[in-house]
Amino acid sequence: MANLIRRAGRLPLSGKIGLALVLFWIVVAVIGPWIAPYPPGSFVNQEVFAGSSSAYWLGSDFLGRDVLSRLLSGARFTVGLSAIAVAIAASIGTGLALTAAVGPRWLDELLSRAMDTLISIPSKIFALVLVAAFGSSLVLLTTIIAITYVPGNFRIARSLAVGLAKLDYVEVARARGEGRLHLALVEVLPNMIKPLFADIGLRFVFIVLLLSGLSFLGLGLQPPDADLGSLVRENTSGLAEGALAIIAPAVAIASLTVGVNLLIDAATQGKAE
C-alpha cells in the first residue's frame, strides 16, 4: 500500500487528476446505489426536467425521477460491465496470444488469421449485429462486448509474447525441458504485464464508449436497468432546455474516459522515463 501511495505521489499533475477521477468513479460504482437519496425508479417530482435544488441536486428527468439517484445507480452498470468485459477480453486474448507464441507454427498462423478476420470487422457494427441477433441481457451484452475486443488484445499481447519467446532466458528454459505451459506463464507472461496494463486501460475506455453507444441506440441495457448511456438516450427531449438530466450522465461518461486516459498517459510516460 505504501509503495502504491509513493507511486501515486510521483505522478504528474495530469496523472493525479486522472487517478482521482478513476478512484471517484470506482467508489461511486461500489457504493452509489446505497447512498442514492431516492430509489432510482421512483417518481419523486411532479416537475419534469426540473433544475438543481436542495431536494434534487441534479434535478429530475423526463418522468420526474431523481437524476442523481439514477446516475449513482447507472454508474455501477457502466463501470462494472466494462470492467468485467475488459477482464474477459484480456484473459481470452492474452491466453490465445501466449498459446500462439509458445505453440507450434501452424497454431500461431491459425489463431492469427482467425483474429485478423475478426478485427477486420468494425467493432461497433460487429457488436450491433450480435446484440440485435441475441439480445441485450446483462450476461449476453457483457459477453458480446468482450468478444468484440478479444482480437485487438490478442494482437498486442502476441506481439509482446512472440518477442519475449525468442529471448535467451526463454530458450534456456526450453532447453532444460520446461513445458509450454511453464514457458507461457512463468517465463513470458510476467514480463509483458506492464505493457498489457496500458492496453487494458485503453480497451476499458473503448468498452465504456461502446456500451454507452449501444445503450444510446436502445440496444444496451433495457429498463428498468440503465447505464450512463441509457440516461442520455432517455432524456434527449430535454436537450433543447439544457436539462441536467442529459448533461449530467454525458459529463459522467466524459470524466470517466478522460480520467482513465490521463492516468494511462502519465503511467506510460513515467515508465518511459
From TrEMBL:
Entry annotated with the keyword Ribonucleoprotein: no
Positions of transmembrane segments: 17-36, 48-68, 80-102, 125-150, 200-222, 242-264
Superkingdom as given in the UniProt entry: Bacteria
Membrane topology: Multi-pass membrane protein
Pfam families: BPD_transp_1
Subcellular location(s) per record: Cell membrane
Protein family (similarity comment): Belongs to the binding-protein-dependent transport system permease family.
Keywords: Cell membrane, Membrane, Transmembrane, Transmembrane helix, Transport
Organism: Novosphingobium subterraneum
Domain called ABC transmembrane type-1: residue spans: 75-264
Protein name: Binding-protein-dependent transport systems inner membrane component
Any one GO cellular component localisation term in the record: plasma membrane
One BP annotation, GO: transmembrane transport
